[in-house]
Amino acid sequence: MFKILVGLLPKEYRNLIEVGLRVVSQLNTAKERSEALNFAMLALADGKVTPGEWSQIGSKFGILRGPQQDGRSGRGPNKNPRKKADG
After folding, report:
1. Element (H, E) at 46
2. Where in the chain are the domains?
3. Predicted structure pTM score
4. Residue 22: which of 56, 62, 67, 74 has the closest Cα?
5. pLDDT digits (tens, 9 = 90+) for 1-44
6. What's the rounded Cα separation, in Å, for the pair 74 and 3?
């Protein structure tokens, strides 16, 4: 039923909904979703978003990722690891 209703919307709205669903799927718990959405609403409240706020929004929504607990960068597998110099 959802797909039928979304299919009736103009393409730009369908794309926006798809992006929103993908972003929200990155958040595992209701608490994470709530915190990310609340921060985004605060950042967007005045109609201006600073680069730092964009970074925080991206981080909270799982779009921008830093180092993971297992040592990965969050950008996928490292296909070209650097060798450390001895000494």
Report:
1. none
2. 2-60
3. 0.48
4. 62
5. 777 888 888 888 888 888 778 777 778 888 888 888 888 889 88
6. 31
